[in-house]
Write a structure and sequence with these properties.
Blueprint: H1 4-14, H2 16-22, E1 26-28, H3 33-36, E2 46-58, E3 63-77, H4 80-94, E4 99-103, E5 106-123, E6 133-145
Parallel strand pairs: 1-2
Antiparallel strand pairs: 2-3, 3-6, 4-5, 5-6
Helix pairs in contact: 2-4
């Protein structure tokens, strides 16, 4: 079974609008330092994702086989309009999504993805002549199926 993060990344890199905005620059946890510290003329917009919460649903006796994760996506650009466009492409690709995601021979059944909140942020430049970065931060809840432990 693939992870929730891998499944959501697969949905995004397969989406033509997201691909047009990010050209594959989607990273787990943190962007590579050469991307973050790029010369403004070489800067490419990117997105970073991370699981910030994960919980399994249970019924009286055991696991129900359903789980929920909260995933945070941060879209980063040197332009506020571009950061919003990336965020909107991600929202359109994921909000309301339901289906089975396959990566290689592994799958994950996603019950539903819902965007819970979106907020904006701006990081001022570190150097006087540099540009700041604009961020759109989206948190989404993902309901998915997980294996149920079997006890003897």
């Amino acid at each position: 079974m693939i992870t929730v993060e891998t499944a959501v990344r697969q949905i995004l890199i397969s989406d033509t609008d997201v691909a047009a905005e990010l050209a594959g620059n989607i990273y787990p946890d943190a962007a590579p330092q050469n991307i973050v510290d790029a010369d403004p003329s070489k800067f490419r917009p990117y997105a970073v994702y991370e699981i910030i919460a994960d919980a399994a649903e249970h019924h009286i006796a055991a696991s129900s086989g359903l789980a929920y994760a909260v995933l945070r996506y941060t879209s980063v650009s040197m332009n506020a309009t571009e950061a919003r466009a990336i965020s909107e492409a991600i929202r359109e690709a994921l909000d309301g999504y339901s289906g089975v995601v396959t990566v290689g021979a592994e799958t994950l059944a996603i019950e539903v993805i819902t965007i819970e909140r979106t907020r904006r942020n701006y990081a001022p430049p570190r150097d006087a002549g540099a540009a700041g970065t604009y961020m759109m931060i989206q948190e989404m809840q993902i309901g998915y199926q997980q294996s149920v432990p079997v006890f003897s």
